[in-house]
Write a structure and sequence with these properties.
The complex is a heterodimer of chains A (500) and B (211). Chain A has 500 residues and is mostly helical. In chain A, 74% of the residues lie in helices and 1% in strands. The longest helix of chain A has 35 residues, at 107-141. Classes of the chains: A mainly alpha (500), B mainly alpha (211).
Chain lengths: 500, 211
């Protein structure tokens, strides 16, 4: 406990430096902005800004990128409540009750509930990250290569099970992502694999061109093809204060949302949107106001908003302790760390205490800043919503172009981005999820390394994966999750939960 | 008997999930290409895996999944893919042909196109411009052409020229744009990009055209 406090104090020392605090603020501001704007999400933004973080110290870079992710959870609810449009996927369910509340003249109360609920959940989840980090790291240090391989396999499987739509297609995308990750020089023999003699490919396919093409530019194209359906803001925000009764009704929902969100955030493949969906389903069944659902129940805003922010924080746990990204945003964080020359993994807590504790402290500071950014300054974000998309997309496009180029100062990356834009567009048309591909791409090379090492240690005996207890447990859970999804009832329930 | 067969045939057709079917075939195609390319690599043994071992496993798994997706698609529909019109197909084939030809002959146009990836860039731009003829491809083609234009212009034409070209071309992707609006937007974005990338981040690019 004392150690935890002294570590946290150290973290606050790092996070409160002028540079770190201003980049946390910048991240929170950018996050809120992209959260408010429909059509650009945290994955695209973070990949967009990845090249820019190159010149920053590692801690500062991660603090800013993290701020974007949880900032987007705050901003997304504003659009959902005021316009009935999700600014982010994770705020889809907030539209259901939040917009109704706005129609009833309680827009201000809904916004305040969302922001306060998020803040509370974020603070609790941050403490959870701080407490569980060193603990899990200790466990992770006893992991052998076989255990790591199985853990990553589990992560990939769960990411697919929880993805929207067909599981088989999602696994197909993961596997293709792993294959893309294998392009480049083989680490052990130095042989060039799948490079077609192109020197730029010998370091592997760039992470940024894939993310930017599939999540950034392809998204622009899909948005433009859809006729613009952004309604004009008619509701007024009104008073931000909650009535006593509203406060009483929202509190238990926030608590439940925090617990559920924290748990779902840690899960590989989980993250903010899943947590919000889960919490909404739970509130509709459990909360006292369940009869009022559909007419603007405050529980339907409080629960999911707390849950998505809690999950946004706790999804850092697998990344920081095991080095395993649990969703596409965390996959980008791995990319950011590797660009900085830091290999994510259990040794990070000890080797990079500034980064680990500084990030945790900055999360708390960032959440506090977001509360101010979102509540008193709500009018500014409402103005931002009035910028038409036709002026927005060229800005996103040029930022993508400059960002991709400046990563290596090489136009090759620009053309790779076009390739992945077309690929991402095709995947969207075929309803193939891009997020599993990105996670597979990041984990692929690590999995190969651990697989080779495990097999070398076991002298070529594949049974090692079943003989080691940790590894066997992971594989068991993975098999169980897959088997569960083959049951038609469970699958239907999942589809319902994810599409509603 | 004859009648029933026709009926079964009819309902079978409706049940096909075209999106999944194409996805499955696409996964198989990619796996086969990967498997073919992987032939050059030494497999090694299970104990000492060579560079080809993991890719071989990955492509087998991918092929298996592709087959499963394809088979499942026969019964999980209907989910039709978007229909391609004649002009869509024509523009698509034309784009590939023109892009390929331009890429191959571009180096003859001048030393510039013989350097680095400039011939590839020109081919991409030409291909997508052909594709933009079809209304169905318009947005995709215009945006991709705008990005490729940035790639080809940046090093020789400099930061401002490349950005201006990309912004102006990308504006054609949305029919709601008006010339004055595009002009003002371009000026605003040029100023903003200069401030962020040159003034603040100081990225290493040519700002003005070089001879």
């Amino acid at each position: 406990m004392e150690l935890l406090l002294s570590n946290l104090a150290h973290g606050f020392g790092v996070a409160l430096s002028l540079q770190n605090i201003s980049f946390a603020l910048l991240g929170a501001l950018i996050g809120t902005a992209i959260g408010v704007l429909p059509g650009i999400g945290p994955v695209a933004t973070i990949s967009l800004l990845l090249p820019i973080t190159f010149g920053l110290p590692a801690t500062t870079a991660i603090i800013m990128l993290a701020g974007i992710y949880y900032g987007a959870q705050y901003g997304g609810s504003t659009t959902a409540i005021l316009l009935n449009l999700p600014g982010e996927v994770s705020s889809v369910v907030t539209t259901l009750e939040g917009y109704k509340m706005a129609r009833n003249g309680r827009a201000g109360a809904a916004l305040a509930t969302a922001a306060l609920g998020s803040f509370f959940a974020g603070s609790i989840a941050t403490i959870l990250v701080a407490a569980s980090g060193p603990l899990l790291t200790q466990i992770a240090l006893s992991f052998g290569p076989a255990d790591y391989f199985s853990l990553m396999l589990l992560g990939l499987i769960i990411a697919c099970v929880l993805a929207q739509g067909s599981i088989l297609k999602a696994i197909g995308m993961v596997v293709f992502g792993v294959a893309l990750g294998l392009v480049g020089t083989d680490v052990q023999t130095g042989q060039q694999r799948f490079t077609f003699g192109i020197p730029e490919l010998s370091d592997g396919i760039g992470f940024v061109p894939i993310a930017m093409g599939m999540f950034g530019i392809a998204e622009i194209i899909l948005n433009l093809e859809r006729p613009e359906s952004r309604s004009v803001l008619k509701t007024t925000v009104g008073s931000l204060w909650l009535t006593k009764e509203e406060f009483k009704r929202a509190t238990p929902s926030v608590l439940r949302g925090t617990v559920l969100g924290s748990a779902l955030g840690i899960l590989p493949g989980g993250g903010a949107s899943l947590a919000a969906f889960g919490s909404y389903m739970m509130e509709r069944k459990m909360s006292k106001g369940r009869d009022m659902f559909g007419q603007g129940a405050i529980e339907g805003v409080a629960g999911p908003e707390a849950a998505n922010n809690a999950a946004a924080q706790t999804s850092f746990i697998p990344l920081l302790t095991l080095g395993i990204p649990s969703n596409a945003v965390m996959a980008l964080m791995v990319g950011a760390l590797i660009i900085q020359g830091i290999q994510p993994g259990p040794r990070m807590v000890e080797a990079q205490p500034d980064l680990f504790w500084g990030l945790i402290a900055s999360m708390w500071i960032g959440n506090a800043m977001l509360l101010v950014i979102n509540l008193p300054m709500i009018g500014m974000w409402v103005k931002l919503l009035q910028v038409p998309y036709k002026y927005l997309y060229p800005s996103i496009l040029v930022f993508c172009c400059i960002g991709v180029y400046s990563l290596n100062n090489n136009v090759f990356d620009v053309y790779m981005t076009i390739l992945f834009t077309v690929f991402g567009y095709l995947c969207a048309k075929l309803k193939m999820e891009p997020a599993p591909l990105l996670i597979g791409f990041v984990l692929g090379p690590m999995m190969e390394e651990h697989l080779r090492r495990a097999m070398l240690l076991s002298r070529g005996d594949a049974l090692v994966f079943l003989q080691r207890p940790i590894s066997a447990t992971m594989l068991g859970i993975a098999a169980f999750a897959l088997a569960l999804m083959l049951l038609p009832n469970v699958r239907k329930g999942k589809d319902k939960a994810l599409t509603e | 008997v004859e009648f029933r067969r026709v009926q079964e045939g009819g309902s079978m057709q409706i049940k096909i999930n075209m999106k999944d079917l194409v996805s499955g075939l696409f996964l198989i195609l990619l796996a086969v290409i990967g498997w073919y390319l992987n032939q050059d690599h030494n497999l090694g043994t299970a104990r000492r895996m060579g560079p080809g071992y993991m890719p071989l496993m990955v492509f087998w798994i991918q092929m298996g999944l592709g087959i499963l997706v394809t088979l499942a698609a026969l019964f999980s529909g209907p989910d039709p893919t978007e229909r391609w019109t004649g002009i869509d197909i024509g523009a698509f084939v034309g784009a590939i042909a023109v892009g390929w030809i331009v890429w191959r002959i571009a180096p003859m146009f001048g030393a510039f196109f013989a350097q680095t990836y400039n011939a590839v860039g020109l081919g991409i731009i030409a291909g997508f411009l052909v594709m933009a003829i079809s209304p169905g491809w318009r947005v995709l083609a215009v945006i991709c052409a705008a990005v490729a234009l940035f790639g080809i212009l940046l090093e020789k034409g400099g930061f401002f020229v490349a950005l201006t070209a990309t912004i102006v071309i990308s504006a054609f992707a949305d029919r709601g744009h008006r010339p004055l609006g595009v002009l003002l937007m371009t000026l605003f974005l040029l100023a903003m990009c200069w401030w962020v990338f040159i003034n603040q981040l100081d990225i290493r690019v040519n700002i003005w055209p070089t001879s």
